[in-house]
Structures are given as structure tokens and as C-alpha cells.
Amino acid sequence: MTPFLRKLLGMNWLLFASVIVISLAGVLFIHGASYLRPEDRYWQQQAKFVGFGLVLFLVVTMIDYRWVKWAAVPVYLMSVVLTALTYTGLGVMKNNAKCWLRLPFIGVFQPGQMAAMGGIMTMALFLSHTRRWHPALRIMGTGIIAAPPMVLILKQPDLGMTVAWMPVILAMLWLSGMPLRWLAVLLLTGLTFLPLVMNFGLKPYQRDRVVTFMDPDVDPRGASYGVNQSLIAIGSAGISGKGFKAPGTQLEMGLIPKAEAHTDYIFATIGEQWGFLGGAALIAAFGLLIIACMLTAACATDAFGLLIVGGITAQVFFHVFQNIGMTIALMPITGLPLPLISYGGTFVLMIMFALGLVNSVWVHRQREIEKPRGT
User: Fold this and answer.
1) Domain hosting residue 347, numbered range
2) In angstroms, rounded to a whole number, what is the distance separating the alpha carbons of residues 44 and 189?
């Protein structure tokens, strides 16, 4: 059996099956969420993104993840530079945030997504080589790596993507052997500065989102309008939902914003059309994806592989928790997409690349032992 075929057959099939099912379901859900805007053809575009993403997933799977060590820092530095370029004339403004970049021959993409992946790889490289350092120095070094992209993304402003770094950093520090007392101090320090961030670090509309999360009745026709309509859509769907592209829905009446129904609020349209059973099935599929990632982490044979998988797992979990949570008033409204479900080429490709790395850690968890000549 050739090494290529051995790797292909030795994939984490639970992970691969979860990726296939969720991404194909995403194309279907986007079609259901955007059928009122047929001229935009979002689901066809998403199908292309998924196709390219699956090829990228398989290519990255076949490459030994240990080679990523050589690409981690260059990818990180390039992503920081590209994120900084959003502040120039190349930046594109969407939904009150200048977080998109237009480059010749490439088109429009979101460099902050690339920065998140570059940050995970670079932090994994740093933490895997500094296990004997004092915890304070390791925390400081991790902060130095994470701070530039986080500050640039926050100033765009993109609060959701900035906050998504937090669970990733905590998970990677914990998996690197950081004592729990140091993590507790880090967490408490962050909570201490939270009021300052709320009052001086957020834009007015971002502050309104947090306030309306605490009390949805404060501004029912303004800041809390979207989440209230999302709750009505999901709550009125019942067990089996109102049906795929059904008439008389919150979506058809325009009460769920059509511009965000296939992106930020896609779980609201899923819940309305497919009901409790559809929403529960999707959450279960994400649960299997997270379990597959955790099994890979448990089988990792070195610190670098463990940290990469841990960081990616934390990132995927938080995106799922935040996106679904904001549509049912468990989390404040942010612009975080639902992995492999929300429309968006940059995020689909970055998630496919990340999950391909996870699969590579599984495939290459045991180094091949060369046999002596003549045996």
C-alpha cells in the first residue's frame, strides 16, 4: 500500500463525515435563507466555496502538520500586514465595519480570518517550545503574539472576532501545561478591565447590543429588534418547523433582515423552516465534529499537534456557541458566522484549512519507522 493511500484510508472518518454533512447542509440552508433574493445566487457561490474547501481539506490532510512550523510565523506576519491594509484605500466597508480587503487578482476577502489561523499556529509553535519557561513569561509571549491582530480587528471594528480569540488563548495555555492559578489570575484580570472596555473601547451600537442582551425590552424596535424577531421565528416553528421556503414566515415578511438571514442570523431561518428537530440535528452534527477534534487531540503525539488541535477546537466551538446563542438570546449579538453554514468564502476556506490540519494530526500521529535495508 502506497503512503498516499495509507494516509487517505487512515483519516479521521468521523471528522471527515461531519465536515461533509455540515457543509452540504449549509448549502441547503443558505438556499432556504436567500431564496427571496434569487439574483444573488448565494447558495451556488457557497457550493463553489465548499468544493474548493474540501480539496484544500484533503490536501492539508496529506501534508505532515509538523511542516506547519516553518510556515506559522510567515503566515502570521502576512496576515497582520493584510489586516492592517484594511485601514487603507484597499479596505472595504460592510455592516459598519471595515474588515474586508480588496486585492487585485484575488478579490474581496476577510484577512482577520487568516490572522486567527496564523495566530493559532504561531502560538502553538511558541508554547510548544517554552514549556520550561516561567508561566508569566509564557503568558507575556502569548499576549505579544495575540495583541497585534486583536487590536487591528477590534479597531475595524469587529468585536465578535476579537472576542473569539479569548477562548482560543485560554484553551491553548491550559493545554500547554499552564497552572490553573495563573489562568484564574489571567481571567480575573480580564474581567477587571471589562467595564473599561465596555465604556471606552466599544462603539455606541456595540454597547447597545450588550445592554439589550442584558435587558431585551430596553429598545424593542431598535437594538433588540433583530434578536426578538429571531426568538419569534424559532419559537413559532414548533417541532418540525414551517417547511423549506414556506410562506408567511418571519423571513418572507422581512422581519428577519434579508441581508443577514444567510450569514449572522442563519440559525434563525434554520429553526423557523426546520423546527426543533432540524436545529437539534445540526447541533448534534457540530457535537460530533467537536468530539472528533477532541479525539484527535487526545491521540496527538507531540505538544505542537495537541496545541494546534486544541486552538482550532476552541475556535470552532466558540463560533458555534456564539452564533447559535445570539439567535436565542443566550449571547450578545455579534457578527461571528456559523462554521460551514453561514455564507462566506474566506471563512469556509479557513475552517476547511484548520480542520484539514486537525485531520493531519490524526493521520500523522505515528511516525513511520523505516525498515533496515535488506529486511
Assistant:
1) 3-363
2) 46
CA 145 to CA 160: how far, in whole Å? 19
Q: Determine contact, residues 289/262, Cβ cutoff 8 Å.
A: no
- For residue 373, being part of any structural domain is answered with no
Domain count, the chain: 1
pLDDT exceeds 80 at position 370: no
Which has the closest alpha carbon to 22: 334, 369, 323, 330?
323
CA–chain centroid gap for 166, Å, is 12
Read off the pLDDT of residues 233-246 as tens digits, 9 standing for 90 and up: 999 889 999 999 88
Q: In what order do the strands lie in the sheet with 97-103?
A: 91-94, 97-103, 107-109
Residue 130: alpha-carbon gap to chain centroid: 27
For residue 157, whether the previous peptide bond is cis, meaning omega lies within 30 degrees of 0, is yes
Q: How many whole angstroms separate alpha carbon 179 and alpha carbon 183?
A: 7
Average pLDDT of span 294-312: 94
Is 249 a domain residue? yes
In a domain, 330, yes or no: yes
313 domain-assigned: yes
